[in-house]
């Protein structure tokens, strides 16, 4: 007679067999998706090659490389913390670049394939590659949007930021499943976003709105009912996830960003003000050519939406324009509702999802409609090329910084022994400034470069100073943030083109003379 323990073992073995069999069948049935995945992955990997070759410790990569900490849980990004310890195979996070960035590219490629499948159906990938290659190129702004380049520059954060994009598109795979299962998947995925990188929440809203109006446009007379239900349940899942996260999981923050929400009486005005600030930055950051191409793609989207419509053409035009405006607003809605949003480039990449989904839709046209493919391909090429411009500029800036830092170290090692005190307070003032390679770029075309490349050595950026004082480089010095040595009338010890060193027996102030830079946090 079989014991309960034996029966349980048999049940477990049977379940494992079933799961293994299902996974094998799934892999066999969907192996045709490997080609588009490999294509997107290759495009992304080549695109960020300049960033990888630069090998720059970006912003707080400097501190993580020096101390090996995670530090994301303070911003409620618990999943990033947990996954990082698994990826680095240790509680101490040693620098394993470029592996995290390569993993990020893989996750973005999976997200890109899902987006194309949601819009065009996965059957498109069973056809000849010439039928789907334009869709693959059109979806690349999802990961090559200039704003997301900051995320891909992080040697520690990159995979978790990319994972948040995958979380944003993943639940929509199940929109045709049962209502309860779909909502559960939304909640799980949105919580995944909130615990990796919250800026991707806008991507879910963009894709949700796009699929809602697309399904209505291609359906019958009563398709509006199904579309409204889909949008309603999607919004319900979104709000449920956000409510759960904000009430039970989120740690309140009040630093350079706040996750608090404005008071009800000023909520709408603050929301509009923040949204206006985001779009002002987009218009300032993006090149004029990019903005023109995006405008043309938007026009082509409306035109083809109406041409393909099975609904009344006038109503289809109104829905297309309204839907496009709503998707535009949705890109930055999650951060705009906060009392103090984050305007850094790494928080603004959701606009890339709107460019990607409209681009994939536009290149799906046939016959004369193929002309609309041109602006999509040109913009994708512009973004692709810009990644090399940015990666090379990042390396130039890093070399420029290291040159000045090495000069400071050399001068301090010469000056410090002449001071009588054994221990000196060291402070850094001013900014190193941008390398001439960047300052010579025309501002109207490369303003975004100044926003992407941030100061990692200067006033209020202590990481590099810590590296100077906590090792044998400058023995007998300590970085003191409490004192304000700039208010002291310290005598000048050395004056150079790049910086001035002032000090007395107990204090050393290094003031750089470069232009003001955005601080990298």
Characterise the protein shown here:
There is one protein chain. The protein has 521 residues and is mostly helical. 62% of the residues lie in helices and 5% in strands. The protein contains 21 helices and five strands. Helix 7 (129-139) packs antiparallel against helix 17 (351-362). The radius of gyration is 26 Å and the shape is globular.
Topology, element by element:
Elements: H1 4-29, H2 34-47, H3 49-54, H4 61-67, H5 78-87, H6 99-120, H7 129-139, H8 141-144, H9 148-153, H10 158-169, H11 179-194, H12 201-218, H13 223-249, H14 264-285, H15 288-307, H16 313-336, H17 351-362, H18 373-415, E1 424-429, H19 436-439, H20 443-452, H21 463-469, E2 477-479, E3 492-495, E4 499-503, E5 507-512
Parallel strand pairs: 1-2, 1-5
Antiparallel strand pairs: 3-4, 4-5
Helix pairs in contact: 2-6, 6-10, 7-17, 7-18, 10-11, 10-12, 11-13, 12-13, 12-16, 12-17, 14-16, 15-16, 15-17, 15-18
């Amino acid at each position: 007679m079989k014991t309960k323990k034996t029966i349980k073992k048999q049940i477990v073995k049977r379940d494992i067999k079933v799961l293994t069999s299902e996974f094998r069948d799934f892999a066999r049935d969907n192996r045709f998706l490997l080609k588009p995945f490999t294509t997107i992955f290759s495009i992304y990997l080549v695109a960020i090659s300049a960033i990888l070759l630069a090998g720059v410790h970006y912003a707080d990569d400097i501190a993580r490389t020096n101390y090996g900490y995670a530090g994301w849980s303070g911003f409620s990004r618990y999943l990033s913390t947990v996954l990082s310890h698994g990826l680095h195979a240790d509680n101490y996070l040693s620098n394993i670049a470029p592996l995290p960035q390569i993993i990020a590219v893989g996750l973005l490629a999976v997200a890109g394939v899902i987006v194309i499948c949601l819009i065009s159906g996965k059957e498109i990938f069973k056809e000849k590659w010439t039928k789907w290659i334009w869709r693959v190129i059109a979806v690349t702004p999802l990961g090559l949007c200039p704003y997301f380049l900051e995320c891909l520059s992080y040697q520690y954060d990159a995979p978790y930021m990319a994972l948040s994009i995958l979380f944003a598109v993943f639940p929509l795979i199940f929109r045709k499943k049962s209502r309860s299962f779909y909502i559960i998947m939304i909640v799980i995925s949105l919580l995944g976003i909130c615990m990796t990188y919250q800026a991707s929440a806008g991507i879910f809203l963009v894709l949700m709105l796009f699929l809602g109006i697309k399904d209505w446009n291609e359906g019958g007379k009563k398709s509006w009912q199904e579309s409204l239900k889909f949008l309603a349940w999607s919004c319900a899942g979104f709000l449920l996830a956000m409510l759960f996260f904000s009430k039970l999981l989120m740690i309140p923050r009040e630093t350079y960003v706040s996750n608090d929400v404005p008071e009800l009486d000023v909520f709408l005005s603050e929301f509009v003000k923040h949204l206006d600030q985001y779009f002002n930055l987009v218009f300032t950051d993006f090149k004029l050519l990019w903005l023109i191409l995006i405008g043309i793609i938007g026009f082509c989207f409306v035109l083809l939406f109406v041409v393909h419509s099975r609904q009344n053409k006038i109503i289809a035009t109104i829905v297309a324009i309204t839907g496009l405006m709503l998707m535009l607003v949705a890109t930055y809605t999650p951060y705009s509702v906060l009392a103090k949003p984050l305007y850094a480039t790494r928080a603004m990449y959701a606009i890339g999802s709107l460019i990607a989904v409209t681009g994939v839709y536009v290149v799906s046209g046939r016959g004369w409609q193929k002309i609309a493919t041109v602006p999509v391909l040109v913009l994708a090429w512009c973004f692709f090329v810009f990644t090399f411009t940015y990666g090379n500029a990042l390396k130039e800036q890093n070399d420029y910084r290291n040159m000045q830092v090495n000069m400071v170290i050399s001068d301090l090692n010469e000056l410090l022994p002449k001071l009588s005190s054994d221990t000196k307070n060291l402070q850094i003032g001013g900014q190193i400034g941008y390398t001439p390679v960047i300052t010579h770029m025309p501002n109207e075309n490369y303003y975004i470069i100044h926003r992407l490349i941030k100061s990692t050595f200067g006033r209020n950026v202590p990481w590099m100073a810590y590296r100077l004082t906590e090792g044998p480089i400058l023995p007998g010095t300590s970085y003191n943030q409490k004192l304000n040595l700039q208010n002291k009338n310290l005598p000048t010890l050395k004056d150079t083109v790049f910086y001035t060193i002032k000090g007395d027996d107990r204090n050393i102030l290094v003031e750089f003379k470069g232009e003001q830079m955005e601080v990298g946090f």
